[in-house]
Amino acid sequence: MGRLFRWSLKVSMYDFDIKYKKGSTNIEADMLTRHPIAYHIINTPPEPLLDINEISHFQNIENTSAPKCFKRDGVFVVKRQGLAKIIVPKALRVKLMETTHKKFGHPGVATMLKLISPQYYWINIITDIRNYVKYCETCQIKVTEMIAEPMFTGASYLHYFDENIVKRIRGNKLDIRLKFRSFGPNGLLLWSGKKEMSAAADYLSLGLKEGYLHFQYNLGSGEVLIVYNSTRVDDGKWHTVKATRIEQGGTLVIDGGILISGASPGILNQLNVNNGLYLGGMESIASLSMNKYHSGLVGCLANVTLSTNYHIRLITHATTGINIQACL
After folding, report:
1. pLDDT of amino acid 216
2. In which residue ranges of the chain is pLDDT below 50?
3. How far apart are CA 190 and CA 204, in angstroms?
4. What is the mean pLDDT of the chain?
5. Is the pTM higher than 0.90?
6. In the chain, at which end, N or C, are there fewer CB atoms within 10 A of the end residue's CB?
């Protein structure tokens, strides 16, 4: 299902029609009719993303150089990973990233590196590309969009600081109900914690690990982990969840099934958090979750309700959000 979900993301930007064709009208392919008589493989160099004269001009203005660099075709290049890469002057780095990002359909960090790094080089290229992609306006959510069921890619999230939401998370009791579908076995669904996390810091989370839902929290005197291990939920189907906490005690129910319970140790019984509520993932997910999670949800969320009757408007209530689309 994860493979199908990734393909659905790739084709979602196109407008196309699907037409049904009976199998009886198709002709079975065979080697003789499909095999070409002859073919030639032509290796063509990649199309340059920047004008060579413009690079030379700004290299001269900035006095661009690097250890072990040399000139080729009028520009400074440096050998990296066996390739002669053009050193990009500071004045052209944003232009290069912008051109590449728009030309190839707003790809992610890994694809951007594959497109840029074989030809070009500068110090901190990975950090600069990561920051450019992260803050691309087109890639970020526009909170005015009305999406009832947002879809998350594993690198997406919605973040809420609305006091009506936050006050229903912290304190000595909690009631969360939601629907979700997941196309992957691992991913964070929900997180509320401190801006500066530590082993003793308060937090509360819902997430998937190896296909099973985990409900986990720390009220300051130790963690509790409640695992719903009777039902895998990474099948791409919609599932309903109810997670509750009254002081140290917590419960978890999926699809109206059996109730699983647990309790945190110690005497502290209130959740004290100051970093709002995240849904579907969060930025710096590994560090903020203390390596409990390394990616967000690959799937969709809907009908998120707090305190039995407060329905979160997933898009319009969000303070910020990244890489959100409508659920397919």
Report:
1. 98
2. 142-144
3. 8
4. 87
5. no
6. C
Q: Which of these, 186, 301, 183, lies nearest to 236 by C-alpha position?
A: 183
pLDDT confidence of residue 31: 59
- The answer to whether residues 101 and 93 touch, using CB atoms and an 8 Å cutoff, is no
CA 231 centroid distance within chain: 25
Residues 6+ apart with CB under 8 A from 173: 244, 245, 246, 247
How far is the C-alpha of 152 from the C-alpha of 181, rounded, in Å? 10
Amino acid 144: pLDDT: 41
Which residue's structure tokens are 């950090």? 127
DSSP state for residue 187 in the 8-state scheme: E
Give the pairing of strands 203-209 and 212-218: antiparallel
Q: Rounded to whole angstroms, how far apart are CA atoms 218 and 247? A: 11
The DSSP 8-state label assigned to residue 308 in this structure reads T
What is the number of other CB atoms lying within 10 angstroms of the CB of residue 4? 10
Q: Given the DSSP bridges, would you call strands 83-87 and 120-121 parallel, antiparallel or unpaired?
A: parallel
